[in-house]
Amino acid sequence: MYKYIVKLRSSLLVFLTHNMALPLLQLMRNEERFQYSLHQLAAMPDNSLGFNLGKFLQQRNLELLPYYARHDIKHILLNYDTTEEGEVCLQCFMLGNGHLSFPVTATVLYGFVTMPEHWKAFRLAYRRGRQSISIERWQWFDLLPEPLEQLQQKIDNKESIRFYKK
Question: What is the pTM of this model?
Fold first, then answer.
């Protein structure tokens, strides 16, 4: 029975995210369209965020969605997988980091209501977000040529960073 519930909640999360939230957000937001192809990402330096984004998508057999690339970049930078636990952890981090939006709030609430076995991971992700440098104003697509490891260290070490919008 437990396995059935886990499968059901996972399917529900995917449906709510990909079939409802994504199309609505594309209509409501005026986001910058991602300008790179998988081929262009693969041509970036091996240690770069862009190269790792392409590898991340290919390893998981995911499409490069032009208006969802920022979300995938966050998965890589924050090192949260695309599992249901990873999705909620990413949003818990963002909430802790000061990003309050409908998708963040809805995902965090969904996770806390339906995934009590992951509460500790969610709490740790939220705390990590609070303790990290604010990433809300980062220019995500400008970061692609940058070394992934350096960016991850800057997030967790609260070093000053030049990749933000003034």
Answer: 0.83
- Distance CA(89)–CA(84), nearest Å, equals 9
The confidence score (pLDDT) of residue 13 equals: 72
Domain limits, the chain = 33-157
**What span, in angstroms and rounded, lies between the C-alpha atoms of 57 and 63?**
7
Report the distance separating Cα 151 and Cα 155, nearest Å: 6
pLDDT lower than 70: segments of the chain: 2, 14-31, 158-166
**In residues, how long is the chain?**
166
Determine whether 49 is exposed, middle or buried from the number of CB atoms within 10 Å of its CB (0-12, 13-18, 19+): buried
CB hemisphere CA count around 160 (13 angstroms)? 1
Give the per-residue SS3 of the chain.
CHHHHHHHHHHHHHHHHHHHHHHHHHHHCCCCCCCCCHHHHHCCCCCEHHHHHHHHHHHCCCCCCCCCHHHHHHHHHHCCCCCHHHHHHHHHHHHHCCCCCHHHHHHHHHHHHHCHHHHHHHHHHHHHHHHCCCCCCECHHHHCCCEHHHHHHHHHHCCCCCCECC
| Distance from C-alpha of 128 to C-alpha of 74, rounded to nearest angstrom | 14
Contact 77, 97 (CB under 8 A): no
